Inverse folding.
């Protein structure tokens, strides 16, 4: 008898399994996955039912057997060796196409692909490989490999990533988008790399490192760098660009970064590197003369104008009615939060700073924290205005269009932090931390390549959906009753799975 079992795990998740009780013992034929919500559980149970025809009907295979009872017996023996094969069929092909197979260690392949389909700790990775792929690798071996990879293969992996990105962009790397984020650690102790600092993750009590990322058009990865956790992010841009230019000997390219990296030092550094730039401007931090020039303008939706500054630098200002509505809405929400905190007595002198909407706080009668409504109303005149500082020869519209693509790097960080779960980091040793980040960087490259291929083929399938489908493509080893030879066969594919394999030209 074959049936579906829902097994509760200690972690609170549920495992959906196909169980064979034909021999009098409970035998796990296949584990379809671990889930924590009812919707995912329902989907896995549906997938389990889809496997039932393969377990009970001879017609699902292109083999002919003389006796049904022999077939069923051999089928049972074969199905004891069911493994998930979808990730290897598709992601493994992309892994090879990128060139990562030039790194000979199979463990690197497993770590990169597994991070895409089952991201988690190295212990979870080892459990996944054993349970779903039949590959036993101890966590000790994984940790030793992280040490080895850092010194032998890390730079090769980064170079292969850049080479493939350059290839698919047809050597037209003319724009590079730069940003930085923080990665926190569960361990509370600091060391030479992990430091307490300003956390973008809201984990100020946790040690962290800074991850700087450089991507090209479409969010394709170019390079990255890791900094100590207490490094000021404004001091990271020039070292990364400098190393990138020196390493790959690229001609001049436009560097695009947000307003957080706008400083005289960075502008001077980029000019020295002969790299044109587009940086987000902080209009309210401009001189009184420039601010007056801006506010003297009459604004209508889509209006753009330029103010010429020193050293061939232009300040381009654009007004958007949609942005104005959004700015007003966000300011109103910020004010309401301040008013609520004020009523509940949560605001103290320590909250008076320039972070976010706290800039509207002031001290009343030298004792009481109050809201400066005059400053709040005065800010409304800046609604809808966005500025860009540049020394490039691009037109106003090209400047704005290039800056708008900065969202691709924000998406890159979002993918890394959510889909790839690069944080929190559980490693303590610097070499393992750096290998962990490099593996996530390579996984991100494969993610972007899968996204690109799905878009080229106009599948209408998202990367997230494709990855879910790949996780339920199974392969079974069966023993042919006549020849007594072993053969690997795919279990029946659903429509989406078959379409993905066909469109990506995967042989199966």
């Amino acid at each position: 008898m074959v049936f579906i079992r829902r097994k509760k795990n200690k972690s609170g998740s549920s495992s959906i399994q196909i169980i064979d009780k034909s021999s009098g013992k409970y035998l796990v034929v296949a584990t379809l996955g671990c889930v924590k919500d009812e919707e995912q559980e329902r989907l896995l149970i549906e997938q389990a039912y889809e496997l039932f025809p393969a377990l009970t009907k001879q017609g699902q295979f292109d083999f002919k057997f003389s006796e049904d009872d022999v077939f069923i017996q051999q089928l049972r023996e074969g199905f004891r060796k069911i493994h998930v094969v979808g990730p290897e069929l598709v992601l493994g092909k992309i892994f090879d196409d990128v060139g990562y197979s030039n790194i000979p260690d199979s463990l690197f392949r497993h770590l990169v692909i597994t991070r895409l389909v089952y991201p988690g700790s190295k212990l979870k990775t080892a459990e996944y490989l054993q349970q779903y792929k039949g590959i036993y690798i101890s966590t000790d071996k994984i940790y030793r490999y992280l040490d080895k990879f850092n010194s032998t293969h890390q730079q090769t992996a980064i170079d292969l990533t850049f080479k493939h990105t350059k290839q698919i962009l047809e050597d037209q790397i003319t724009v590079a988008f730069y940003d930085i984020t923080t990665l926190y650690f569960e361990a509370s102790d600091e060391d030479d790399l992990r430091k307490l600092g300003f956390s973008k993750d809201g984990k100020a009590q946790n040690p962290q490192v800074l991850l700087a990322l450089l991507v090209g058009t479409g969010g394709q990865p170019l390079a990255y760098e890791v900094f100590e956790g207490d490094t000021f992010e404004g001091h990271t841009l020039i070292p990364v660009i400098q190393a990138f230019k020196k390493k790959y000997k690229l001609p001049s390219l436009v560097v695009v970064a947000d307003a957080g990296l706008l400083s005289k030092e960075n502008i001077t550094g980029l000019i020295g590197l002969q790299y044109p730039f587009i940086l987000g401007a902080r209009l309210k931090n401009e001189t009184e003369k420039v601010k007056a020039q801006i506010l003297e303008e009459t604004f209508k939706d889509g209006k753009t104008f330029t103010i010429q500054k020193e050293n061939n630098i232009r300040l381009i200002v654009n007004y958007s009615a949609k942005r104005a509505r959004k700015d007003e809405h966000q300011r109103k929400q910020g004010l309401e939060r301040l008013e609520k905190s004020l009523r509940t007595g949560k605001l103290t002198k320590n909250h008076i700073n320039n972070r976010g909407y706290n800039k509207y706080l002031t001290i009343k009668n030298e004792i009481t924290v109050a809201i400066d409504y005059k400053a709040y109303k005065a800010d409304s005149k800046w609604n809808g205005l966005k500025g860009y500082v540049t020394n490039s020869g691009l037109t106003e519209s090209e400047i704005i269009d290039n800056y708008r693509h900065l969202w691709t790097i924000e998406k890159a960080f979002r993918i890394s932090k959510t889909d790839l779960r690069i944080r929190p980091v559980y490693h303590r040793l610097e070499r393992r931390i750096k290998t962990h980040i490099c593996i996530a960087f390579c996984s991100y490259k494969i993610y972007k390549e899968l996204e690109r291929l799905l878009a080229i083929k106009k599948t209408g399938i998202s990367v997230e959906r494709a990855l879910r489908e790949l996780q339920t493509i199974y392969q079974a080893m069966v023993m042919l009753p006549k020849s007594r030879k072993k053969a690997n066969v795919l279990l029946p594919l659903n429509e989406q799975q078959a379409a993905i394999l066909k469109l990506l030209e995967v042989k199966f």
User: Anything to note?
Assistant: The chain has three domains: 2-84+479-503, 173-320+384-428, 323-382. Residues 430-456 form the longest helix (27 residues).
